[in-house]
Amino acid sequence: MPRVLIIGASKGIGLETTKQALKAGYDVRAFSRSADRINISNSKLEKIRGDALLSQDIETALDGVDVVIQSVGVGFSDLIRPVHLFSNATRILIAAMAVKDVKRLVSITGFGAGESKKSIHCLQRVPFKLVFGHAYQDKTLQEQLIKESSLDWTIVRPGVLSPGLLTKNYKILETPLEWRNGIISRRSVAHFLVHQIEDRVFIHKDLVLIN
């Protein structure tokens, strides 16, 4: 089975994806600045502390890996100032994957990034820009970098995230005409991500996920 590197594995979608990938039987390398605090004990889990903005850390984490799931995030307090984490981390990751000859990337951005920005309801555009504008401007750049790469990429844009239960009947919206915002649990997003480890149906696709 493929070995999976999960970047941003210590919390949120990354942590939930780590749990579900292990349950599915995959060897998982969990990468995070706080990886040592991941409270999971499993013989198939390798925890690596590192910084997604350091090329050496990322290249080390990519050794022997077949698939990368990228799930990085910023704190709410970081939204008031310009954000560069998503694009900078992605530049480093794409370059490192080329060095290590790793082709498969599944990256989580969010509804409102890239082309999906056009699908934000007119009444939501101003508050969305005020609160999330800095972050999603950078996520849009992140998506552009991924699409311009030679990787076998899939971009996943969840709607509003909730701590709810896993429901396997979530909607995978593939075309701009379908794209809309909605709520989806982190567990449901993780379920989709784990299925992308070996599924090639959505390579070179940018999707929206909602319940």
TrEMBL record:
Gene3D superfamilies: NAD(P)-binding Rossmann-like Domain (3.40.50.720). Residues 8-199 form the NAD(P)-binding domain. GO terms for molecular function: biliverdin reductase [NAD(P)H] activity; riboflavin reductase (NADPH) activity. This is Epimerase. The lineage of its organism: Bacteria, Pseudomonadati, Pseudomonadota, Betaproteobacteria, Burkholderiales.
